[in-house]
From TrEMBL:
Subunit structure as annotated in this protein's UniProt entry: May be part of a spliceosome complex.
A GO CC annotation given for this chain: Prp19 complex
Localisation: Nucleus
Family designation: Belongs to the SYF2 family.
Protein's name according to its UniProt entry: Pre-mRNA-splicing factor SYF2
Name of a matching Pfam family: SYF2
Organism in which the protein naturally occurs: Takifugu flavidus (sansaifugu)
PANTHER family the UniProt entry points to: GCIP-INTERACTING PROTEIN P29, PRE-MRNA-SPLICING FACTOR SYF2
Keywords for this protein: mRNA processing, mRNA splicing, Nucleus, Spliceosome
Example of a GO biological process term: mRNA splicing, via spliceosome
Length: 264
């Protein structure tokens, strides 16, 4: 006598049975053992699949962690490079890129035989042109005194803009001077030119304007060593001067009485 367990035939030993009840119990125990062995196989398969899924997910998380670590290291290196660069590096970089593009554009225009400025103006929109014109109008052309050379150049430009050409006088001088109108190293015309009354009046008018303009300039006040010291610092001295300028005539008598010691 035998039974099939896990697909194998197993022969069982024979024992004498006393009655039918013991035979039934033996057959039930054999059937239960066979059913337990058959059910264990799908349970183990499901557990192994679950374990493999968990391992696969763990490997994916491990790869993502390594990738994030590499990206983080790259960002740290880039940030350290930017920190070591100058403060205005971005502006300089943009400026250099723009100059490189401009140089390349000029070369292309020169190779095609085109005018670079004309090509550049064709790419400017009407809105940009209006915005640039408004910005130019807002700028103050008078930047103040920066140096004697700059001031002299600005005055020269201002005077030349005021000059209006007198073509009649030009032709008259040309006829009078003849060949000496365009002098050469051998020409002797020094002292022969006589200015007109209109030119002299224009010069006098311009000089009077310059004198009036200089009179409005602010200058540093000279320090008077003999003046009374009635202040504790420079700011207090300025305040006392302003107070004296506005209220000096009303407080003069009180101040004199305090200095004499006759104040009530």
């Amino acid at each position: 006598m035998g039974v099939v367990i896990s697909g194998k035939y197993v022969k069982l030993p024979c024992y004498p049975l006393k009655n039918k009840t013991s035979l039934k119990m033996a057959s039930c125990s054999e059937a239960n053992a066979s059913s337990v062995d058959i059910d264990d196989e799908p349970v183990e398969t499901a557990a192994s699949l679950k374990r493999e899924a968990r391992l696969r997910k763990f490997r994916e998380l491990h790869l993502k962690r390594n990738e994030a670590r590499k990206l983080n290291q790259q960002e740290v290196v880039e940030e350290d490079k930017k920190r070591k660069l100058p403060a205005n590096w971005e502006a300089k970089k943009a400026r250099l890129e723009w100059e490189l593009a401009e140089t390349q554009k000029k070369k292309e225009c020169a190779a095609k035989g085109e005018d670079y400025h004309r090509v550049k103006l064709l790419e400017v929109t009407a809105d940009d042109a209006e915005r640039w014109e408004r910005k130019k109008k807002k700028k103050n052309p008078d930047t103040g005194f920066a140096g004697y050379a700059e001031a002299q150049f600005r005055q020269y430009q201002r005077l030349t803009k005021q000059i209006k050409p007198d073509l009649e006088n030009y032709e008259k001088q040309r006829e009078e001077c003849g060949e000496d109108f365009h002098p050469t190293p051998n020409s002797l015309i020094h002292g022969t030119h006589v200015p007109t009354k209109t030119g002299i009046d224009r010069m006098v008018e311009d000089l009077e304007k310059q004198i009036d303009k200089r009179a409005k300039y602010s200058r540093r006040r000279a320090y008077n060593d003999d003046a009374d010291i009635d202040y504790i610092n420079e700011r207090n001295a300025k305040f006392n001067k302003k107070a004296e300028r506005f209220y000096g005539k009303y407080t003069a008598e009180i101040k004199q009485n305090l200095e004499r010691g006759t104040a009530v």
